[in-house]
Specification:
alpha+beta, 8 strands
Length: 290
């Protein structure tokens, strides 16, 4: 990997296993959106970023070297060797095809608190509506930041959301999820749950702790574990993944616990990567939609 600075932009070459479309369109985050065929804009870690890719060249616009090293290097999981992961998963012919199709996927290292609230909002919801609710939450209660001459808003912290009433939250139009958002804020503000405590737990125990939040069930907790805690042994199963797994690995309908048990045995400690490759491959090719 080589980094060169031109004007206020960083030009990074030599990134392996890196494709913006694969990364941002596999359902793992909600604040990055395509602004052109090869460019995405979003906000993470209280920073805004416009990023584009042209073959081997990735441009981080208006970004300092410190921000790249201290924020985006970890956010894009650039320290991980994905070639080894893809090699392990490719022993399975179905996964081999899925990995080849989404070979530029990387699992983003997102803030735990943002992941908790975002995936609470994601329950029984579709991606456009999820993104709309989260943007309204940020625009109304986040902090202003400036980037490339424009104003944007960060994800509101625990204290801010804790201070809100149900009436305050009505502006984001999240429906029944308001009370779950408030319960999460209450548990984190009171110290019943803390990031340090959850990170200290094994994956099964961290899952149990997260599920003490009202509205956090099996699928939402697995998403938080994978995307907010980096527990890559987690294999979130929603309706979409259930259909994909039934189509690819089973002869007929299965219960979610059976699918989760199969994934744990079949994919082991890299189930989270398998889930992302399968999700992207199946959604792009409309597999398991009938």
């Amino acid at each position: 990997m080589d980094i060169n600075k031109k004007d206020n932009n960083l030009i990074v070459t030599g990134l392996k296993d890196f494709n913006l479309h694969h990364i941002f369109d596999c359902g793992q985050c909600f604040r990055f959106n395509a602004v052109s065929e090869n460019s995405y804009f979003g906000i993470a870690k209280n920073k805004a970023l416009l990023i584009s890719q042209n073959d081997d060249e990735v441009i981080f616009y208006d970004t300092t070297e410190d921000d790249f090293k201290n924020i985006w290097y970890d956010y894009f999981d650039l320290n991980r060797d994905y070639s080894e992961i893809k090699s392990r998963l490719s022993n399975d012919p179905i996964m081999k095809e899925a990995v080849s199709y989404g070979d530029g996927i990387r699992i983003l290292n997102q803030d735990l608190w943002e992941a908790v609230i975002s995936f609470i909002i994601s329950a029984s919801n579709n991606i456009p509506r999820i993104k709309g609710i989260i943007e309204r939450l940020c625009e109304n209660f986040g902090k202003q930041i400036s980037y490339m001459g424009k104003t944007y808003y960060t994800f509101p912290d625990t204290d801010t959301i804790y201070s809100l009433s149900k009436e305050d939250l009505s502006v984001i139009r999240s429906g029944f999820r308001d009370k779950y958002i408030m319960d999460a804020a209450d548990k984190f503000k009171s110290g019943t749950l803390t990031e340090e405590y959850i990170k200290s737990l094994s994956t099964p125990d961290a899952k149990k702790a997260l599920m003490t939040i009202n509205g956090v069930g099996n699928k939402v907790s697995d998403c938080i574990l994978l995307f907010g805690l980096g527990r890559v042994d987690s294999f979130p199963v929603d309706v979409w993944i259930k259909r994909i797994m039934e189509y690819c690995y089973f002869d007929g309908e299965q219960r979610i616990p059976a699918i989760s048990a199969f994934a744990e045995k079949h994919f082991g400690d890299i189930g989270g990567f398998a889930q992302q490759y399968l999700f992207f491959y199946a959604r792009e090719n409309k597999i398991g939609t009938e």
